[in-house]
Amino acid sequence: MKKITFLMLHLNYGGIEKQVTTLANNLVGKYKIEIVSLYDILGESFYELDKRIKVRYIFPCGPNGKKILNALKKFRLKEFFFELSLGIKMLYTKYFKIGKIVDELNTDILVSSRIEFSKQIKRDDIIVVSQEHSYINTNSYKRKVKNSFKKVDYLVVMTQKAKNLYETWLRECVQRPRVILIPNMIDDYNGDGTNLHNNQIIGVGRLEDIKDFTSLINVYSLVEKKHPDWTLKIIGEGSKRKKLEKQIALLGLKEKITLTGRLTSEEIAKELDNSSIFLLTSKSESFSLSIVEAMAHNVPCVSYDIDVGPKEIITNKEDGFLIDDRSQTQMAEVVSTLIEDSVKRVEVGTNARKTAQKFFASNIVLKWQELFDKILD
User: Angle at the Cα of 217 (from 211 to 218), degrees rounded to 5?
Assistant: First the structure.
């Protein structure tokens, strides 16, 4: 049986982590599956893994910046120097020693999940596949791309726009990877989903600037003036939590908006089943698993029309809505229309569920199997 090794930064909560664990669970048995993760942040994978999958961690912990600062503030010098030394070792490994770790792997196919990992890979005796879940359209990033995939055989991206850009950027490289489009995936979902009768709006994501929950809260504040019986629930955790809590308090919406913190996949699914509208106000998305998962549960999605991601999932006004120019007013108007028109809400939700099925694991895994079978033939 041929072996596939996935090289990961960590197995904590996140889009690429969800995608890789779902893929691994669906491939194990047909192939031997191994996951090599730089960090062990949780002591186990956040997402459930098949017991047949071998997982190896390079470090029994994750980034320790907070521990370093805490030890320094409390003047615990022994602890400070220990954590500082460990932090430097982890960073050095991440950017300079991954290649050595890869050299020692016994595998047929290596799937790298990070551009800084791919740059360090030098092996010619295995097939190397690199996944890129985002892109930055700048000259400096283009140079980084050209320098990072010299030993990569296949580069897998998630959107057509990303595929077009990477093919253009890599055209000048003497040895360039073949760029393959394989969208992200979610687990197959056969539940009933939401009945769209609950007065709950939902948002899901990390509480960081890139997700721009500040805008989402502002949109809800406009909606709430017309529809005070509707509430907002934001699922996720991050460094901007206190900032968002302050914003909610200033708007006088503490009784209407709930920040749940991080929830399990099962808990998120339950919240989607209790929701009737999903909002996304991110500044950037490589794909947006959260949109697909909401659509699978019949939830109509309203998203800013950002560079990539949502526009390659949503057909505007059919199975969701795309908002131009990051307009909070326009988004609030669309949300209000969905609240007031239950027939339209059901129509969009039904179409959304059909769209989401294209991204079910049972369909997307076939594309990966086709790639791996071709490689190993």
Answer: 110
